[in-house]
Amino acid sequence: NAGVTQTPKFRILKIGQSMTLQCTQDMNHNYMYWYRQDPGMGLKLIYYSVGAGITDKGEVPNGYNVSRSTTEDFPLRLELAAPSQTSVYFCASRAGQGYEKLFFGSGTQLSVL
Amino acid sequence: AQKITQTQPGMFVQEKEAVTLDCTYDTSDQSYGLFWYKQPSSGEMIFLIYQGSYDEQNATEGRYSLNFQKARKSANLVISASQLGDSAMYFCARVSIYNQGGKLIFGQGTELSVKP
């Protein structure tokens, strides 16, 4: 079972560059989420989606964009990368919005220099 | 914002002893859930245990149990018989049931170190 797959695992960007973090899940989950984790800190929600074609902002959406054209894929776009976006990014999915647990990808370590 | 608070940035426990990790939360919801996740140094997020606000009994999963005190809005994780492999970051998270897109809001975490 692949679960939630994120690519790349590591990336270094220069200030002002753009990139897309890929996330795909094979569990047919409607609910998908992007979190960032700064060193020694908890996870903060960037964006989330409750189904294909529907996305909404989380706690820290500035500097990011998302799309959800299919149930499986939920890419995160960074435009004009800044050092403040240096973080570990986690994609996650759930089967529902009740008691179902959150399944996480393995994370992307991003450094903006 | 409805916060999750973990007041212990770091804790030490002797191997084979029990340890309690604290978690308190704000919520105005009647129906909500509480999760605990473990993050070892490898970085993966591992689900440990879940408690629903309407569950009458405290949740248990093997060596993990959740001390749920609804009136105090606390959901402390108890790890019995600590093992060296329990050394990790532990995160508490809250979700509003069937509301707000099923978003989990996380606390800042507690780093647990198990001493041999």
Describe this structure in words.
The complex is a heterodimer of chains A (113) and B (116). Chain A is built from no helices and 11 strands. Chain A is mainly beta. In chain A, the strands form 2 sheets. In chain A, strands 2, 4, 5, 6, 9, 10 and 11 form a 7-stranded mixed beta sheet that branches. The mean pLDDT of chain A is 95. Chain B is globular and about 45 Å long. In chain B, the strands form 3 sheets. In chain B, strands 2, 5, 6, 10, 11 and 12 form a 6-stranded mixed beta sheet that branches. Chain B has 116 residues and is mostly beta strands. The model of chain B has no long low-confidence stretch (mean pLDDT 94). In chain B, 0% of the residues lie in helices and 51% in strands. Chain B contains no helices and 12 strands. The interface between A and B is medium-sized, with 28 and 28 residues.
A few lines on this structure:
Chain A is an all-beta fold and 113 residues long. Chain A is built from no helices and eleven strands.
List keywords for this structure.
heterodimer; A: 113 residues; mainly beta; seven-stranded mixed β-sheet; four-stranded antiparallel β-sheet; 11 strands; 50% strand; B: 116 residues; six-stranded mixed β-sheet; globular
Order of helices and strands of chain B: EEEEEEEEEEEE
Average predicted local confidence, pLDDT of chain B = 94
Order of helices and strands of chain A: EEEEEEEEEEE
Helix content bin of chain A = under 10%
The global form of chain A is globular
- The protein's oligomeric status is heterodimer
> What's the total helix number of chain B?
0
Please, how many helices of chain A?
Answer: 0
Which ranges of chain A are low-confidence, i.e. pLDDT below 50, for 5 or more consecutive residues? none
Supply Rg of chain A: 13 Å
Name the beta content range of chain B: over 45%
Mean pLDDT of chain A: 95
Computed structural class of chain B: mainly beta
